[in-house]
């Protein structure tokens, strides 16, 4: 490809419309006879311009600075041309102009990516998920100001070192009381969301190389908290004189026997309850988080709670549940009053449903997965717990079969 014979850069001037004898300086890029021009926003006196050389005349400091700037412009245009050739992209006068001005895809910025991602995902993801992406954006902006002393960078500046420095910054972030803001998994979640944005940039061809290629997200694994049969019975049998605690206890127990999340309990209405194929009452709803259709037979313990609040004047749903933050605060009081030394949140009810109510009573994990509204069985396996009593029961059954075989062979 004989690019040197078809590519030229020249500087020229036009008369200024506002001031007589003053010239405005332009640069013209020509490839295969096609031109693109860029105004350099520089002016010079008509008598100081050398048309043949395309430079200023004289040795004054002002002229020397102008000519040095024009040399830089020419060098950058040559560099843009070389980049396009190396990237095997279409080399045209307009393409070089766009690359020079930073208006082509290669010169997109990190904030461009975040704005594009969040602008599109706001119509796809749930508000709670989008809130997490906005928080990640906040940390990224703080990181840029702290480490780069600027508000934005080009995507081509993203590299493996950037990811490592971002991880280090997130681990050291503190609040007003100088306490660490994030634990390891919190840091990893922000990096995971950032990785998804960068993956989008790769698909859009805004970057040529993914800086996350050699970076591994390392989450700490924790056993998810759930209530044992004894602990669940303790909460069920405890009555509270304070209405706020009694209401939340009932809502929590209802979730333990249905597997519904906080938001699904809050939005539960009578029109979502109907007779199932077994002529028993079922809940027919869509999970707020995944929009997955869920069909749940209502166990007697859960139905008793619904009947209890049938005539209760709630604003929207069937049960008297307050904000998620207050619910979790009240649950800590409830756990303390019942002598349960676990960090209980409303989501613990969902784990309890999967583990204590379902799996430990022999319900197959495939059925539990359907009841929880999971799209993948692997997600349900995170909730699943093999409890000591279930192990003991299974081994007991195994030993019984051994004994039966021995008696048959004797």
Topology, please?
Layout (H helix, E strand, L loop, with lengths): L6 E9 L6 E10 L2 E12 L3 E2 L4 E2 L4 H26 L6 H9 L8 H12 L5 H21 L12 H13 L11 H20 L25 H9 L5 H14 L5 H5 L6 E3 L5 E6 L6 E5 L2 H9 L15 H14 L9 H12 L6 H8 L4 H7 L4 H22 L1
Antiparallel strand pairs: 1-2, 2-3, 4-5, 6-7, 7-8
Helix pairs in contact: 1-2, 4-5, 4-6, 5-6, 8-10, 8-11, 8-12, 13-14
InterPro entries: Arm-DNA-bind_5, DNA_brk_join_enz, Integrase-like_cat_sf, Integrase_catalytic, Integrase_recombinase_N, SAM-like_dom, Tyrosine_recombinase_XerCD
Organism: Arenibacter arenosicollis
Protein name: Site-specific integrase
Can you walk me through this structure?
Helix content is 49%, strand content 12%. With 410 residues, the protein is mainly alpha-helical. The chain has 3 domains: 7-104, no CATH class; 108-203; 229-393, Intergrase catalytic core (hpI Integrase, Chain A, Orthogonal Bundle), CATH 1.10.443. A 3-stranded antiparallel β-sheet has the order 1-2-3. A hairpin with a 6-residue loop joins β7 (281-286) and β8. The longest helix has 26 residues, at 61-86. It starts with 6 loop residues before the first strand and ends with a helix. Keywords: DNA recombination, DNA-binding. It comes from Arenibacter arenosicollis.
């Amino acid at each position: 490809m004989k690019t040197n014979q078809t590519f030229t850069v020249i500087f020229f001037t036009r008369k200024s419309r506002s001031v007589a004898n003053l010239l405005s300086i332009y640069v013209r890029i020509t490839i295969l006879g096609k031109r693109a021009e860029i105004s350099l926003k520089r002016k010079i006196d008509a008598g100081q311009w050398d048309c043949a050389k395309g430079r200023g005349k004289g040795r004054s400091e002002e002229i020397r600075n102008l000519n040095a700037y024009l040399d830089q412009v020419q060098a950058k245009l040559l560099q843009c041309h070389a980049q396009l050739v190396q990237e095997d992209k279409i080399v045209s006068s307009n393409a070089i102009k766009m690359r020079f001005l930073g208006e082509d895809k290669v010169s997109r910025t990190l904030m461009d990516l975040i704005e594009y991602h969040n602008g599109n995902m706001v119509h796809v993801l749930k508000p709670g998920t989008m809130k997490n992406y906005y928080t990640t954006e906040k940390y990224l902006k703080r990181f840029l100001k702290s480490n780069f002393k600027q508000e934005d960078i080009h995507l081509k500046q993203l590299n493996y070192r950037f990811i490592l420095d971002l991880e280090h910054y997130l681990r050291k972030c503190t609040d007003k009381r100088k306490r660490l803001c994030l634990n390891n998994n919190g840091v990893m979640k922000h990096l995971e969301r950032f990785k998804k944005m960068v993956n989008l940039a790769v698909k859009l061809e805004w970057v040529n190389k993914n800086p996350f290629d050699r970076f591994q997200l390392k989450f700490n694994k924790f056993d998810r908290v759930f209530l044992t049969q004894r602990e669940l019975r303790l909460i069920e049998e405890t009555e509270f004189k304070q209405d706020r605690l009694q209401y939340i206890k009932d809502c929590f127990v209802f979730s333990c026997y249905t597997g519904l999340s906080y938001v699904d309990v809050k939005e539960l209405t009578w029109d979502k309850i109907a007779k199932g194929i077994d002529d028993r009452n079922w809940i027919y709803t869509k999970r707020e988080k995944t929009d997955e259709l869920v069909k749940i037979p209502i166990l007697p313990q859960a139905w008793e709670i619904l009947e209890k609040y049938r005539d209760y004047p709630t604003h929207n749903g069937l049960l008297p549940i307050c904000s998620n933050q207050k619910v979790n605060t009240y649950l800590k009081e409830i756990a303390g009053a019942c002598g349960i030394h676990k960090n209980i949140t409303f989501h613990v009810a969902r784990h309890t449903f999967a583990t204590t109510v379902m799996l430990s009573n022999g319900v197959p994990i495939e059925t539990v997965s359907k009841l929880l509204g999971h799209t993948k069985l692997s997600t349900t396996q995170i909730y699943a717990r093999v409890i000591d009593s279930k192990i003991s029961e299974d081994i007991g059954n195994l030993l019984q079969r051994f004994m039966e075989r021995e008696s048959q062979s004797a």
